[in-house]
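Q: Is it fine to ask for two folds in a single conversation?
A: Yes, each is treated on its own. Send the first.
Q: Here.
A: Result:
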Amino acid sequence: MKEILTFGRYYKKKIKKRVKKIPLGISGFTCPNIDGTVAKGGCSFCENESFSPNLAKNSKKFFLNPDSKENPILQKQLLEVQFQYNATRDRYKSLGYEKFLAYFQAFTNTYAPLDTLKALYEKALIQKDCIGLSIGTRSDSVNEDILNYLKDLDKNYDIWVEYGIQSIFDETLKKINRGHDSKNIETWIKKTKDKGLKVCGHIIFGLPDENQEMMLKTVEKSIEWGIDSIKFHPLYVVKNTMLAVEYKKGEFKPISKELYIDTLVKAIKMLPKDMFVQRVTAGIDDETLLAPNWCKNKNALLKEIREALRKEGYIY
């Protein structure tokens, strides 16, 4: 049996300690696909104020962008980093984890002035047991200055940039209202790698009108571009999204569980031995999930995925 390299196994081999990512969601961050810079309405699968009255009520809140001249909520943001990190760290420590990466997860976490990014990233890095950062972002929301700064941080910490690849097909990216093309993704992944930084790529299976061949082509190209790690997600439909409207009209049919698992197994078999898998599925267990229903029970799905991989000689 071949053991799949996971996040935990990667760091256990690298530093001989149990490492966990601590997710952070910081006020004031948004996305160029939500604020109208590159598109309007956000990605089709993302809840946004165009479809959510509750979000619309908050539309007058302060949001950053790279050209913001000031940041009146910086102190609040710094406190959020400290509080969220330490509250989660305490819980994970009780479960036996020893070191942590601060994971800037929600929205686009390079979409702000560099001074703000420096303050927030460095606040996270001085927290106890923090060994690095994982920064979730879009390929159209980084620049040379940000990458050079992260390169300097990488001399003393483990720095990861997580890009939403989703698909390498421009027709798909247009359908989901992504706001950039696949060339943009390729360009910035390669530039990030040229700086010596580590890249995690997010890929979605079940995007509109994609067949298995297309999904696996996205995996193949992502490997060619040099990503170090990968996350797999099924596309599921939640309320207050453009995708929900399409689903209710019968214009979108979610991927089946059987096809998702089969595609995932084939994708994992394609990965180089030194590339590790950070996620094999995702889901949501609340009333916002519209479809597919099999995304509701993540633990049951993980069991089926493990069984399918085991049949192919893999241990996840």
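Q: Second one now.
A: Result:
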Amino acid sequence: MTTETPLLEASDIDFAYGDVTILEDVSVAAHSAAVTALVGPNGTGKTTLLRTLAGLQEPTDGTVTYHGPSSERTVGYLPQHPQFRPGFTVSETLEFYASLVGGDQEAALHQLERVGLADAAERPVEALSGGMTRLVGIAQATIGDPPLIVLDEPASGLDPGMSKHVFDVANELAEAGTGVLLSSHDLELVDRTADQVFVLDEGSVVTRGHPNTLCNQLGVDSLQNVYEELIAGDLRSVRVQGETA
């Protein structure tokens, strides 16, 4: 278990819409140079948690603390369904976002190379495939080199090849020192990529740890089996104390 100070940590987060509780007593942490993944059923609060961690909404209770370096932009965020204003090229779109966050426009265009879209710089955004739109969204999220990138279901609805590419980009960002926090239903890719996994169910963290640690503690051979045991099976009350990164 690491004692390294996390880049971002949330402690005892609650979130509710009126009388409807979305998150209850959730504590998570994301580290630099690591991929942290949130997994769980639809409707369990993953998007709400990511938006809270990205500073886009305030929790009902609990605290979110950023421990990272000072930066013009501390968190970059990719929503689950990124949309860009039609009538602009990819390069014009990134230049616009760079102007909003104080990033260098030439450096912003370099992010296209990072995600493998340099050849699409002059393509209209409305002519992009779903996968390419997600990659432009990731490029937008990395403008200004924020220490933490938050990606909400970055591979949702993509074909297997594009899904793998998106996760490869996330892994490359982490290898370069960026903290990556993402949610995904693709447990095979999470298993291969994540350094830390938080399993959520019904608005709470069921367990956390490195995929291998979780597999060993439950005596299974894949994150998919961990998920099935804890969410679909009879072990919902089990709390596995995994390592924190």
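Q: Anything structural to flag on that second result?
A: Two points. The longest helix spans residues 160-175. Confidence is low (pLDDT under 50) at residues 236-245.
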